[in-house]
Fold these 3 entries.
Entry 1:
Amino acid sequence: RRSRLAPSEAIRTTCPYCGVGCGVLLGRDGAGRIAVKGDPDHPANFGRLCSKGTALAETLGLDDRLRAPRVLGHETGWDTALDLVAARFSEVIREHGPDAVAFYVSGQLLTEDYYVANKLMKGFIGSANIDTNSRLCMASSVAGHRRAFGTDTVPGLYADLEEADLVVLTGSNLAWCHPVLYQRLVAAKAARPAMRVVVIDPRRTASCDIADLHLAVAPGGDAAIFNALLAEIDRRGATDTAFLRHVTGFAEALAAARASDPAESGLSPAELEAFCDLWIGTPKVVTVYSQGINQSSSGTDKVNAILNCHLATGRIGRPGMGPFSVTGQPNAMGGREVGGLANMLACHLDLEAPAHRTAVQAFWDAPAMPERAGLKAVEMFRALGEGRIKAIWIIHTNPVVSMPEADAVRAALEGADFVVVSDITECTDTARLAHVLLPAAAWAEKEGTVTNSERCISRQRAALPAPGSARPDWEILAEVGRRMGWPAAFGWSSVAEVFAEYAALSGVAGALGSDFDISDLAGIDAAEYDALAPFVWPRNARKNGGRFFGDGRFHTPDGKGRMLPVTPRGPESRPGAAFPFRLNTGRTRDQWHTMTRTAKAPRLNQHLGEPYCEIHPEDAARLGLGAGDLVRLHNPLGAVIARAAISDAVRPGEVFVPMHWTAETASAARIDTLVRAVTDPISGQPESKGSVVAIERFAAG
Ligand code: SF4
């Protein structure tokens, strides 16, 4: 393949996997082969990479790549495909209104792609039916932040994990899911032996290797722990009374905390006391949380239960202190900033606030803006199945595998009037159902920006040409916008121009009081964009070292942080005689999402190379299971086959199954077929860790 890569130079880009957002040097080794190294100058990783990052060069093969558009399975040219997409969307909108169409996008999209998709759907089509697979990942954190802080703003920085004297990982297997951040934590703990780490997780995960205390919380019991902590903070007189002048809702939150039953945490009184002793006795504490908190029918409340404790003690937005939500995908945070969820506008503006809507509409010179939030992911596919949505465009995600009740999602797509899929490959369960399949440029072939979990915006840069006629997503979306009748609004000639427009919009947001203001970059030209170095926003922050809320100033109308009363609720499904096992789903260390990229790297497949079901030895004995037997997990939604992995890392009555395998990679292994599409009422995030199943021996190993 021809490339921009000269033998002696490397291109600085960003890893396309997780929200740590590591900087990557993409160059050539001595033999002239494409090679990858960690970027020593990137502030997220300082040269480190994890197993997935170091294997990136092995995933660049083109065998399965989509090289030309396809309509009903037949290769065609771009003009034919794009004309068809524009015509069918326009026709549906004319006949059924703008809410009869939808975009379902992805945290894999670059910010510029997201920006164009949002502008097209919200400003010009006039619907808010654009949602993202980040809904499955961190929507509860977004909702919790907005309730407590007034905006979806992450208060702290990665350095806080290194500066803390106590790091609590709750619902976060940082070792496998954010490995380089975990490496930084391991190094910090080695350098400062007095540092303590607590892991709160029903499973004994790899992150427990450095834990001073592992608390095997009952599924859904997290809010009960943090309520118990809040009550104890108050009982011991450990609140920060000066900081509480900047916070409302303390009395109500405390009353709810006192009323909740600590036993619902599943922990013993001694375990709870040990946790409270550590947390209250350590001023510099960071509480890291992720999918174990978010993926719950009460995820938003769990987030606020954590935030309550930090607000009550003023441990927020100061070095080594704060709650810290780590995002799953490479650009989940950029998607949040650019308004990529059905209930948001760009730059932390609020879709349902008339002044914000009017300002964005004026900036875009847009004909129509929706006045209410659109359909969130689960609602969107339900509406598709019920025929309320007639046309959907799915971009870089595989909902037939990753959505809860995945079989119903597949049926909805099979029955839909018009399905467009943009992807780098045709080999996904979702791409196979597309009427129109659009070939997109992949990582290392496209230009743009991403934002990681600590608000660091970094460039992704192209080093290789895209195969065939594959194109960047922003360009495909803009082409459709032009063909739908808005040539001026979608008339950019480069990705740098898209970024510059986004930066200019952030100035409008800044004038409305938004904290997300990068408008000093509005005049950026192509060369400056090409050279843009990673930066954490707020840019050039002198106050609070780039952290938020430590000064007691929040983004709520009264400027105060909000504590919320939280009444713990367990998962919606309850184990019973017919379905006695609680099903926990999650990631493995070396695979990513539905494996479209990582499965190409042989060494990544060597670690846990097939679907498995972690089950406790007592349960295995009762079911007559031997090591390596195949088990069948089932509930009324379907059945899945996996290899039994007998381990006391899970508790009796609970099983863990990874979420990566697909019908393409292992038949009968899409675990999300068994996950109920129950959602958090505030965030709309599905409860991916709380369904129930029965298990039986399927075959000998
Ligand atoms: Fe990529 Fe995340 Fe690994 Fe960094 S930690 S190399 S961003 S997968």
Entry 2:
Amino acid sequence: DVTHFGYQTVRAEEKAGKVAEVFHSVAAKYDIMNDLMSFGIHRLWKRFTVEMSGVRPGQQVLDIAGGTGDLARAFHREVGPTGRVVLADINSSMLAVGRDKLLDSGVAGQIEFVQANAECLPFAPGSFDLITIAFGLRNVTDKDAALRSMYQSLKPGGRLLVLEFSKPVLEPLSKIYDTYSFTLLPLMGKLVANDSESYRYLAESIRMHPDQETLKGMMERAGFERCDYHNLTGGIVALHRGFKL
Ligand code: SAM
């Protein structure tokens, strides 16, 4: 079985190791790079995700590929002391940085940290009211398996939100964005994190990721119903939503 790691064709069993290298390498600089590369706009994309989640006090939330914990912290505020927030990620370095950050925010004790692969989530079926995956799905080798596993882990009536880079809807925006991604991004990666390779992977993996309609179809095939999406920043990012009814 072959798959892609950015623009490289690799054997499916090689991909997770390569993705792991990227996130071990970027973990320490992850938050600052996010702010720099997106001009802080990732905060707005995440805020919109929380708004669209419809989450209420007392609910159970899983943020898979949660990394350094931006969404987990926001959801913790929404669900309150009677709710539950689980931050799961496959990468120990990202989890460690996330845990430190949430400790500093004083909420780490109220959030569960789990090292897990999105393809085979270690939770009982029907555990969560809401599952989110932000900028994570494109790194997952078997995306269909991951979507099925998320479907299983949701309660009936629960929803999945997938926040991910997508396809810009306007041609001129697309051109500027391409230039930015393949020249400035790796350069910033080199200057700030001394790692241009990881940021080239970032640009390439975004180009290889399924577009809005394709991802919606994948969610439907995994069992999700009433699937829709919102383009953000001209489709540079899209927020997909689907329900387990
Ligand atoms: N969600 C965070 C955010 O929005 O800032 C972090 C996103 S970061 C770009 C992608 C994360 O996906 C990394 O922390 C990485 O370790 C994680 N990841 C990659 N493959 C994964 C998998 N198969 N299962 C779970 N997490 C995975």
Entry 3:
Amino acid sequence: MTTPTIELKPSSHPLSDAEREAILANPGFGRHFTDHMVTIKWTEGRGWHDAQLVPYAPLSLDPANMTLHYAQEIFEGLKAYRRPDGSVASFRPEANAERFQRSARRLAMPELPVETFIEACDALIQLDKAWVPAHGGESSLYLRPFMIATEVGLGVKPANEYLFLVIASPAGAYFPGGVKPVSIWLSENYVRAVPGGIGFAKTGGNYAASLLAQAEAAAKGCDQVAYLDALEHKWVEELGGMNLYFVYGDKIVTPELTGSLLAGITRDSLLKLAKDLGYKSEEGRISIEDWKRDTENGTLTEVFACGTAAVITPVGSVKSAGAEWTQADGQPGKVTLELRKALLDIQTGVAEDVHGWMHQL
Ligand code: PLP
Ligand code: COI
């Protein structure tokens, strides 16, 4: 498949330096967007075409656009960091590109070539480089590549045309308050995904389905929902937007990929990084009884969540309809903080990138 060349249409109204700096001083998460975006079209019989870097602007969609009705949509999330020398590098973009292809296959959408995905992200970062926060903190430029169906019609079928876009947003902490531990609600009423379903794909429907469970968690005074497997309602899978890790002394364990949870790139990186730091790391099955029992008997020393947006966030407490417990002393654990620092040091260019994860622009 050929890669279309990206044609540049620069914004005639970019934000001023002062306006941009004011946003970068306190970016929050996903609230502000850079001056440009990438758009690439796909049409049946023609493939990918009309790759453009255009001013960030609203889309004009027909009310009968298929995405609006049947949710044929996929997305990705990755970050670019400012390095000590002022240059910029993104974290494992080819892993996001490959997951985007897996999501596309599941949603019966066309696969964007890996090199086109990376080229599109690079082109946007390069043009809007001034939006990448300064080196020194944890801030980054969050990239959101996504694809929607653009065919118009109400018949349920794979669309015959699509639009791929990349937008970018400066990102500070996903959870305000730094590395404050989050509280977890174990949902009994709702599951996130089922075997054979779309749990492994990064598609909007999974997040829409999580909103009511998230509201239930909030009503119970919790920050996030941990989902259990749909069949036995017993095995811990993941949070709505993060994977989970269980720390047993010098071993970290994450739920195995069953098809109904997302193969997080942070999750995968930590399986490797933990070994570099002298820990054991593995994928396994952890039941809700294991979680409670091993916390009580002291063998489960820490639990944390991980993902691109949330980086690594400690779990401080857990609540379900019938039980409630504090995770160890409820404070961020030693292993959690060590892994968090090691990952961020690689991402921000402070530590050596032994795995070749950083993609320098
Ligand atoms: N699980 C879900 C449901 C997510 O949305 C995310 C975020 O992307 C993750 C896990 C973590 O994945 P990654 O580390 O690739 O960001
Ligand atoms: C990400 O971490 O990139 C995600 O997509 C998670 C989302 C809940 C913001």
